[in-house]
Fold these 4 entries.
Entry 1:
Amino acid sequence: MSKKKLYLTIFFIFLLAVFAGIFSYPDSVNRGIKSFNNLNVSLFGFQIQIPNFPNAPFILGLDLQGGVQLIYEADLSNIEEADRKETMDGLRDVIERRVNLYGISEPVIQVQGESRLIVELAGVKDIQGAIEMIGETPYLEFKEMLSDEEREEAKKEFTEEEISQIIEAYKQQSDQEITREEVLDFLTSGILKETELTGKYLKRADITFDSNTNKPQVSLEFKEEGAKLFEQITERNIGKPLAIFLDGQSIVDTDKDGKITENDLYAPTVQEKISGGKAVITGNMNVDQAREIVKRLNSGALPVKIGSPIYQKLIGPTLGQVSLEKSLKAGILGFLAIIIFMIIFYRLPGFLASVALVIYAALVLFLFKAIPVTLSLAGIGGFILSVGMAVDANILIFSRMREELKNGKDFEQSVREGFNRAWPSIRDSNFNSLIVCLILFTFATSFIKGFAFTLSLGILVSMFSAIVITRTFLKCFIGTKLEKIKWLW
């Protein structure tokens, strides 16, 4: 590489480092920009105003900034045991989409055991608001009327005392007689039972308008399995109403009594078997209500009921802040100790490695903000550990260089051989560490995942720092007088 290209590479490295540093901590630069703009400097009659550098905050986890922790117990009573894990995974994904829709970044939502769901929302201070937000996720279900056999069985559940009270009350109000069988028919006529079809099988929802009445309605499209279930349900309910419930309330139940009767004018009656997996929700709704239903359904209908949380806690950031301050203090002291050690033991190469280490830290912090990465205490621990691994690569390279210099090779050959001979060890050790990080990220809990991600990110940047940045710095001294001063190397 020519000297011109070499110096140009160094210029871009420092330019990248300065940009990363300003992006990571722009406050000082923005204060300077503000002071300059207050001077009202003009050029060719135009006032110069420099825009501030964007100040994106680091995203902190629940343990560092506090937030809300909720634990829900899902109702899996109607779910086959073989399908429960898949159902809980679906529930987790739906709620994660829901909280992301409300602008909460990096929520921690995980399944615990067979039926419990843990929801951790960093930065949220209102427990009731968080519960209401999650509760807005709709649970969609279809219910059908009882068959003749099931109605006969249901009639047996009413006692003679209850029937007699109804007959007497009816006689007093209307001054007419009513038979026992008529009472039982009335009591069982509006009883509904759940079907297999729920929001789990919903593909998407859209707002449409009735061609005759021009009233808004909600069209539903089911997934392949849901389309088959809907076809079977409509086939066995021809001539009967099919009730659609959203969050436990029938959309077409006009008197809100939980039963579908002839008084419910908008109760959809199945006219024929419906194939193709499409349905329409009609009801006494306006455009805004229909639009809200569509929005909520498309953001995710819950595959099972979760009800109210069985545990709720508002977590304060005090403990996390203390731990963060101690961790940062330990990290800074360790960083300074590494620099002092490298300079004392490796002299000029150690100084160059220290400069590369500062650039490394700026780049990693830039990536934490740009990706962005949610930082927990475990994640910060992974970053601090990666700093030590970044130094390991430089130590291997400098030790190989010294061996080559002792064997009588010139400086250029020593630099080249030092990197070539150290590279296999650097590659293999870092590759093994990345494999461990991948395993942790795939199978561990959320906090360990944060550690694994920050550590793996730090390892990748450390390899770039050692192989590219440090190597470029050393090449600047090839052919100079300093390469002749043996004690520097």
Entry 2:
Amino acid sequence: MAIKADLKERDGRYKRLRAAMESEGLDALVVAGYGGKGERGYIRYLTDTHVWEGDPLILFPLDGEPVHVHVTYAAASMPDKLWVDDYRIWPEPQSEIIKAIKEKKLTRAKIGVAGMRKLVPAGVLEDMKSALPQAKFVQADNVMDRVRAVKSALEIKQLREHWKMTQRAMERFIEVVGPGMSQREAAAEPARIFRAAGVFDDLTTIHEGNFKGLPRDTPLKCDDAVSFHLELCGESGHWSEINVVCAFKPPTKLEQKLLNSERRALDEVRAKAKPGVTLASLAKTFDGVILEDGWKFDKPMWHYYFHGQGMDGIEWPFFTAMPHGSQDTSLEEGMVFSYHPHKDTIPSVPATRAPRIFDGFVITKRGAETLAPDWDVMWRIMK
């Protein structure tokens, strides 16, 4: 990874966040992180620290310097120069955050909690409310989400670089996959590329026949189709999500028709995805193309058509056609999305050979630009 975040990038993020806080009347934020995989919260965005484990917290005041409290030193990567000078280690981070709130005379302040809905561990908020009864704690996930959703120019450069590496890893799988080798052997070849590029967190799945999941020590038959899926967290903390179907039989007329429909839908969505357009309207565009080509939809499935993507595998905003789970919004320049709308169709195509197209794109003034311009989203017909 050649493009690094620096203190200039930090200062830009802090300035945008403080403007959002001021508009919400917040005196401070308590910002949560989470030692998970695809969802780590907001620590990386504010500190450039890759959270490997633990549930860190940051006190981010409207005025003055932030305080970063981690459970242990087991942050997987720290910046060459700490973005937050006041870096503390404590087994229960809320204890140090409470102390810092008192030190900064914020005991009567309106304090937003970024991560209240999903990230703050049980008991943390109760501890803060109990210790600081005159402070007003409010949910502030939306404050962080909206700021983080619009990527800086540097972040977009990092994402483009990360996606190029992801393509190289995927192309390596296409080069090596063949009958007799195990699923793990086939998956190990692209892993050599992304591990060398600084990726140490990933979701790697393989789909052949009735099996779909983490690669196993099972020989590949390669007599029909093998689907390979990568979701990679790069050295800069940004995620990519890409998929390929290696077909060892040419597509049938029905399969080719659906492939062409899905490809046309991608082109239509890209053309429409401009600032001011909603995710829900993009979903209607996708559905409209598929229906226009003569398909009908089978039973609905729960998944996101589109979701924000950056320092979490899934970021706000996101859209699903199911009754629950959407957090739709209008697109803004600088937003980045993972694209993977699909529905089971009538007539049906076997799941192994269904054309699940994945793409990533950034919203510009002119519209959506793919993060993988050299990637062919169609099947690879193997020889």
Entry 3:
Amino acid sequence: MHRIDPAIIREYDIRGTVGRSLGPADAQAIGRSFATIVRRAGGQAVAVGRDGRLSSPSLEAALVDGLVAGGVDVLRIGLGPSPMLYYAERECAVDGGIHVTASHNPREDNGFKLVLQGRPFFDGDLQRLAAIAAAGDWEPVEEGRGASVTDLDVTDAYVARLLRDAPPEAAFRIGWDCGNGALGPVVEALTQLLPGEHHLLFTQVDGQFPHHHPDPTVEANLAHLRALVADKRLDFGLAFDGDGDRIGAVDARGRVLWGDQLLAILAEPVLAAHPGAPIVADVKASGYVFDRIAALGGRPVMARTGHAAIKTRMREVAAPLAGELSGHIFFADGFYGHDDAAYAAVRLLAALHASGRTLTEWRDAMPPLVATPDLRLPVAAERKAATVAEVAERLAVAGAVVDRTDGVRVTTAEGWWLLRASNTESALTVRAEAGTGAALGRVLDAVRAVLGESGVALPPYVPSPQA
């Protein structure tokens, strides 16, 4: 039996700081317990992958040991992005998958993303796994029966699948920034086979992340990409997070297009193929996105933030497409409803080519709204939910217009703002949008005041000159 630190059991995955709250013993217990869950569900084999963090090899080895001790066969696909693990889990005749990754977290962190029989494994599933580990409630393994471990490189097959939906005539000039994350080798292989001209940044996998942190939701991390696009006069640039499931973009003028804005572009060809279909966007998405989906004849659906919640909501409403502000994009007809940034990039090329408009022209046509990125406010883990509840109570007393899909989303005369507890960090996240910079400032002043009553400070925010 082994007690896993409850603090690392997040809503959608497992993440902790290596050497402090997470180590090889935890990885082995996670493997042993997941093996029990797989076997009790009638399964026998699990795919395992890892990202490029310095701690990932040792954690992956311990995880595999636990899975084998639990009596399941293991298919090791090695270093790669999380979506490549999702691909292997669906295409390689296994019953579940685990990727060793902490996504966009700091380099000292690591963790695990899990899937079982093609579906996200999260929330109560993770609590059940931790309970099995703590009790040592593992399925016995028959004496003399050894589980097998097989190494398989699926990179070429995964890239070939990406290319199936790439437009063969779309010869764009593109910058690609992989941030030394796990997607780098895939992007190298992919761009050699795509038409057009491609300029690559930081494709060598390096868990130190020496150039910038791989998180395209933080505008400062796009500085190298903006400089490349300007210097080479490229059509646009694309950026990715550490495990390759988040996409970001900048147009030819260096303006950022966030995940919800990319979703608005991708919705057009999807709704042309699926008239009237529901399209899911998370609670942080711009009001423009929901309006755009409706204008195209689709049915906008608001969902909780978080990749597993989005996948679940997508299945509930049979949506062909979903996306988040954070750059997670999900295609039901591409990668089984999983979030895959490389696949989203390929579909973006197809959408731009089909529309006959450049990314810059798309950005020009979007309404002049001013929004913050996802502002993260460090808060102790035990205070996250309590702070949101306190704010919700005060808003109810004040008679505010509030949506409680995920946290509180408040509509005002000048815009809207959102406060929610982060799913992956000890933090609150704030997002706000208004028609002008001055109006955004007033919206944020209201947020600052209501957070201040709970002892949480919202720092001053100055919109980007590109906004």
Entry 4:
Amino acid sequence: MRTDNGLSVPVTKPPRVRADVVLVPALAQMMPATLSAALAKDEVADALHMLAACASNTLIGAACTGTFVLAEGGLLDGRPATTTWWLAPLFRERYPNVTLDTSKIVVPAGNRVTAGAAISHVDLALWIIRQQSAQLATLTARYFLVEERASQARYVLPDRVLHADALVRAFESWTREHIAEPFSLERAASAIGTSERTLARRVRAVFGRPPLKFVQDIRAQKAIELLSDGNISIETAACAVGYTNASTLRVVLRKRLGVGVRDLRVLS
């Protein structure tokens, strides 16, 4: 560039900042019936029309129930995604073409990115910032006193997942009543009057995992409650939730939460 006095000054281009990002807000409905009604409103249809127009060249993100809006418009079909964990059964029922993983807080998939429950919108915002600058994302997290969180699993309460399947509810109740006993799918199916195959299929349809994995979730949650009391040993907790030794419970907790028992006691 040449100035008024004739001097030549090199031009430094400003850093490129991504501007083609659209974030879909969560809907103010947290129960299946009211959420389904909200998704049928005209404003959602209008929003989906606008999203469809820019879907090919725009990063589109959503957290919590906002992920339902993306899925409603087919914008998550064939992709992995996450959502608020207690509405997972409704999500799987409405959107079978989406690969749902509620264990994760943020799930990027090409030019789509979804986040989980409640304050996971903060994790979503940090993920977007990190795409431009990891240093800036770290600094932002420190200012807001936000810790790195990769999983929703630590916060999930299996008994708060909203589902309407009577057979699965019966299985869940039976599991809780027999939590201290070794798990047997055959015995569970017989007790609630169904076949092993039918029970396995229905549990997977609701929770996205086989019965044993769901039983492990219930056991892990109960163990977490027990271990929150510093006076209860890992051996006692393991026995109370149906494991014959403490090492098995340690493995389950680490796989589910990503932390060991000692860290768990500190976090509780």
